[in-house]
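We emphasize that the prediction below concerns an isolated chain of 80 residues; any contacts that depend on oligomerization or on bound cofactors are therefore not represented. The input was used exactly as deposited, without trimming of termini.
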Amino acid sequence: MSGHSLPETTEDVVDRLVATGRFSSPTDVISQGVRLLDEREARLAALDRLVEEGEQDAASGRIVDADTLFAELRKRHRAI
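Result of the prediction step, given as a token string:
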């Protein structure tokens, strides 16, 4: 892969994936990998935001214990 230096094990994986025919070039393999990493990072950032919101809710007393929550859910379910 010209212009890029990858560990040998990574190059072996890239070469193997190109050899399967699923990718037309090493660049395609790397592009797909980067796209997947970007998607994963976006999901992790969203999860981090939700955790932070939950921590803020807990610190502000805006939480319900599990027993109360499940009792309310059972009550709603019976009403259906």
